[in-house]
Specification:
Blueprint: H1 7-18, H2 24-31, H3 35-47, E1 66-74, H4 79-85, E2 92-97, E3 104-110, H5 113-124, E4 130-137
Antiparallel strand pairs: 1-3, 1-4, 2-3
Helix pairs in contact: 2-3
Amino acid sequence: MNHQLNDLDRRIIDILRDHGRRSNREVARRLGTSESTVSTHIKRLLSEKLLEIVAVRNLATVEDATLVFVGISAERARIAQVAEALRECPEVHFAAIVLGRFDILASLVVADRANLYQVLREHIAGIPGVLRTETMEGLVSVKTFAHQTVVT
């Protein structure tokens, strides 16, 4: 697989970023191309896993949701396994192996501090290889993953 984005791919993604359920006809109209061309590009982007179309919960509208970031330090030989184990925790919405102070950075959405404590103590601290964690609470979201821009 080539895994290359061309200009039309980028323009299609830009249009879908704001509304992932836009019809191929609407995307084609905005781009001045045919519906079949858009359909072909979207199918390729999806099959090559260059594009995902997902629903993202708007946390600003949910009273019982708190956004939390957890920096995780792990044993060097187990960093990848710790990151992979985070997939099993439903409260974890994003996790990445990172450079810097931590080995892994995860974002969680929890109902309250009791739920946070439960996730930290029963799930994250129990993953073999976790050495320590540092938790930061998100106060105000100014940009979400749904509106991310990737420069290529």
